[in-house]
Amino acid sequence: MDIGTKIRAIRHRRKLTIAQMCEATGLSKGFISNIENNNTSPSIHTLSTIAEFLKVPLPYLLLEKKQHMRVVRKNARRTSSFKQLSIEHLTSKGPLRMMIVESPAGASIGEDEPHAHEGEECHLVLQGKVLAKQGEDSLIAEEGDCFTWNASVPHTVKNIGDTKSVILIAIYSDTKMDDLL
Fold first, then answer.
1. What is the pLDDT of residues 119-168, one digit of tens each?
2. Which backbone phi and psi does 144 adopt, to 5 degrees?
């Protein structure tokens, strides 16, 4: 972990000196320098003191780089298509995937062949009217309705309205997810 570099970067962004940090935390200049240069591993108590001084949550200091905030700008979103569906991927790769799926009237996912994969799904209907089926359960969802399910059970979502449907879908899985759609 590169905790020291992160501490130094936060301190510099906040325009704080090592002297100010020493005064507020009671730590010596040499010790802080060793921490910031990753020459020593501070205790959790020391990290907690530093985090309080820097006004950041302690867990933030312990995050690995890949766990930090990820941003996908609107003009950088990846798009794809699956059958008649248009898919805009809102998130980058990771355990939580979000996408906006547009489908013309009559289009569906999973109706011809069962659609199933690892994880949990949450669907929010932004526009249109869809028929959602999972196992023996089914429901008609319209604008503003939301439904969730275990995605390992075969499921179908079909646009049963007269116009296109737009659905925000969030999928969470502990296992690696390549493109699900």
1. 999 999 999 999 999 988 999 999 999 999 999 999 999 999 999 999 99
2. 95, -15
Amino acid, single-letter form, for residue 12: H
Positive/negative CA dihedral, 41, 45, 47, 49: negative
Contact present, 159 and 165 (Cβ < 8 Å): yes
User: Residue 74: which of 100, 101, 95 has the closest Cα?
Assistant: 100
- CATH numbers and ranges of domains, the chain: 3-66 (1.10.260.40), 74-172 (2.60.120.10)
pLDDT tens-place string over residues 40-83: 999 999 999 999 999 999 988 988 777 767 777 788 788 888 88
Cβ neighbour number for residue 167 with a 10 Å cutoff: 24
As given in the structure block, the two tokens for residue 53 are: 């001084």
